[in-house]
Write a structure and sequence with these properties.
Blueprint: H1 7-20, H2 29-41, H3 58-64, H4 68-83, H5 90-103, H6 108-119, H7 121-137, H8 156-163, H9 173-184, H10 197-210, H11 216-229, H12 233-248, H13 268-280, H14 299-306
Helix pairs in contact: 1-3, 2-13, 3-5, 4-5, 4-12, 6-7, 7-12, 9-10, 11-12, 11-13
Length: 322
């Protein structure tokens, strides 16, 4: 399970994360709520009060957390909480940089967030577009990886291939996948000219199998689910991209306009944390498999194969097909 910690590390982890947010009057309500949700749902320590725990300075945190994997997990949570400060300030960036230096882990977030604060959102958008191109390429539907994406044109062949999934039996992955677009009220990939179409096929297949809808909260939660599933560089970049679009608010994609503070919305922090935990209980990362090979299988059986459990609140607006 991603983000699993030895019991004795949870308290220093939390104290270090509080310390990383201890600027400009201390952690914001949103940062505290997100950290609290992770403490409860991922680390199973509801007894820890994130609002009263003493901050742990960078050097002390580095002394307590020495394993490279644990340090990487600390950095993942560091980035999440950094994105949750609005506005993101120089002091917050500097504080995070101090912890990154202490544990020797720095990711692409450092340059992206620094650019936003130092040079403004327009420059940050350009940097994010380059980052996103690499992230998207790694998450393209496998059978479409070698299919040329036409420049400035729709893909009728792809639309026809996806439309054919309507003939799959009700309850199968293929049939449910088409229903997903009908419920969301968006056209099938290939209907519009964009280099993202082959990515959308895999991304939305993952939505269906995980049972997460298309609300902004669910989009962030899906990326968190993926990191719980397997916290490799591809899934870590997916979470960072989602945080930039929906939290930091300086990145747009083809269909999604940037917004800020999504995790401050009611229930969003709990959704994020519970989906990290649910993803971590799965048995295999299904996000980059050949989904077309699974379209005739009942969705329930696909979920069972990969250990996808029923979510905490299956009938809220953030979940589908439960």
């Amino acid at each position: 399970m991603s983000l699993r910690l030895p019991t004795e590390l949870v308290a220093p982890f939390v104290a270090g994360l509080v310390g990383a947010c201890d600027v400009d009057g201390g952690p914001t309500d949103e940062q505290s709520d997100v950290l609290r949700a992770i403490v409860v749902h991922v680390w199973k320590r509801p007894d820890l009060d994130v609002r009263s725990i003493a901050p742990l300075p960078p050097a002390a945190l580095a002394s307590a957390v020495v394993d490279p994997v644990d340090r990487r997990h600390f950095h993942e949570m560091l980035v999440t909480l950094e994105a949750c400060r609005h506005p993101l300030t120089d002091r917050q960036l500097e504080r995070v940089e101090a912890y990154e230096s202490a544990i020797g882990v720095v990711g692409p977030d450092a340059a992206l967030f620094r650019t936003m604060v130092a040079d403004g959102t327009e420059r940050a958008k350009a940097d994010f577009a380059r980052f996103l191109a690499v992230s998207v390429d790694a998450r393209v539907e496998p059978s479409l990886r070698d299919v040329r994406v036409p420049d400035g044109a729709a893909e009728p062949e792809l639309v026809a291939r996806l439309e054919s999934l309507r003939s799959c039996a009700p309850g199968t992955l293929g049939h449910t996948y088409v229903r997903f677009y009908e419920l969301a009220g968006v056209p099938l990939p290939g209907s519009e000219p964009t280099a993202m179409n082959h990515f959308y096929v895999a991304h939305d297949m993952t939505h269906v199998i995980a049972g997460l809808s298309t609300t902004a909260e669910a989009e962030v939660a899906l990326s968190a689910f993926l990191m719980g599933l397997c916290d490799d560089p591809v899934n870590r970049s997916a979470l960072l991209a989602s945080l930039i679009v929906h939290e930091a608010g300086f990145g747009d994609s083809n269909k999604v306009r940037a917004e800020t503070a999504v995790l401050a919305r009611s229930g969003a922090a709990e959704l994020l944390a519970s989906e990290i935990a649910r993803g971590g209980r799965c048995t295999e990362d299904f996000s980059r498999l050949d989904h077309f090979a699974l379209v005739d299988e009942p969705l329930d059986e696909v979920r069972a194969r990969f250990g996808v459990e029923r979510p905490l609140h299956p009938h809220d607006v953030h979940h589908v097909f439960w």
